[in-house]
């Protein structure tokens, strides 16, 4: 009976420790990421292993984030994007959409959250934070979450076309340039 | 193998409701964390009571420590061109602390000092007005966030870049820093701040505050929660 109680005690500690961990995931990039000047073409913001800060709910393999259990999750994301354009007219504008997707290119594909930012004259070479507010969504085990950027057709000028220029980049004084947070709610 | 542990067992008193039979295998249980509720009562009531108290106190001890702050006070800032390394810190008032079981705070406390190594979730909200007409068609990038301060290091750990233009240069905008998870080390000081990101003109008299019609709005709020005391071996920030 004593041995049994010892096992019980250890088991309880393990359970409590598990309870103390917040069931969430946070991944972010400190590296700049290039975007192609291709309006309407979805471009994925890809993360690497080194970008994973905290993960208690999913897997990150081959640049893919998947959740390990079904439930209701809160998903949010952001990216700091700089079109890098100089010398245009005051009538021009650049419209960029940032969105989070579930199961891209699969039958269960779904846009979870989206935001659009309109760059106007004077701010074409200034990074702006595109924020996707936390949104609750039902996810199934194995669902994949990814972050995408699209230049909208209402854009009147090209973004910086240089292949050496990174558009998802570090605004002055800030380190994080893009990130996704997934938190299990229920 | 089928999981049998989510089945409520026992008929004694309420503790028995969460009884757990060790002879059953754990295989097949997908949500292992939920088994916390399944304590170990089998035959001896006294031992059951001891375990029950242990569980209750464990819940108390492991509750997430957090700090919540919310104010409607107004502050002004002067943001200058090229001074992006200068952080303008938001003044805080102890009376506006909504909840705190994270930081050690007494009458003499001047800084929020991280109490232990761990993963922290940080969020904040700024109601900000550049109060100017000079942005027009010029650069208007301003940064808002929470800064960590330690020896030779002063940088945002959670922040949002807001790009102001002619349409919002003279009105209040809500700038959110959505929940951000970072690993912070014991002894680091945490403080909310504003700084000039990339601006074309000096912005004098920027206001962190509320509109005249809504003076009781939240001009600034922030939450910090210790979500895990787990060690980290990587520089997460």
Helix content of chain B: under 10%
Supply the number of helical segments of chain A: 1
CATH architecture of the largest domain in chain B: Sandwich
Beta strand % of chain A: 35-45%
Structural class of chain B: mainly beta
CATH architecture of chain A: Sandwich
What does this entry look like structurally?
The complex is a heterodimer of chains A (186) and B (237). With 186 residues, chain A is mainly β. Chain A has a single domain, classed as Jelly Rolls (Sandwich), CATH 2.60.120.40. Chain A is built from one helix and eleven strands. In chain A, strand 4 and strand 5 form a beta hairpin. Chain A is elongated, with a radius of gyration of 20 Å. The two termini of chain A are 36 Å apart. Chain B folds into two domains: 49 residues, no CATH class; 163 residues, Jelly Rolls (Sandwich). In chain B, the strands form two sheets. In chain B, strands 1, 2, 4, 6, 9, 11 and 12 form a seven-stranded antiparallel beta sheet that branches. In chain B, strands 3, 5, 7, 8 and 10 form a five-stranded antiparallel beta sheet that branches. The chains are: A mainly beta (186), B mainly beta (237). At the A-B interface, helix 1, strand 1, strand 6, strand 8 and strand 9 of A face helix 1, strand 7, strand 8, strand 9 and strand 10 of B.
Structure at a glance:
The complex is a heterodimer of chains A (186) and B (237). Chain A has 186 residues and is mainly β.
List the helices and strands and how they pair.
The complex is a heterodimer of chains A (186) and B (237).
Chain A lengths: L1 H19 L3 E6 L13 E3 L6 E4 L2 E4 L2 E4 L3 E11 L11 E10 L7 E11 L7 E12 L4 E8 L26 E7 L2
Antiparallel strand pairs in A: 1-3, 1-11, 2-10, 4-5, 5-10, 6-9, 6-11, 7-8, 7-10
Chain B lengths: L44 H18 L3 E6 L3 E5 L8 E2 L7 E4 L11 E2 L4 E12 L10 E11 L2 E11 L9 E12 L4 E11 L3 E6 L11 E9 L9
Antiparallel strand pairs in B: 1-4, 1-12, 2-11, 3-10, 5-10, 6-9, 6-11, 6-12, 7-8, 7-10
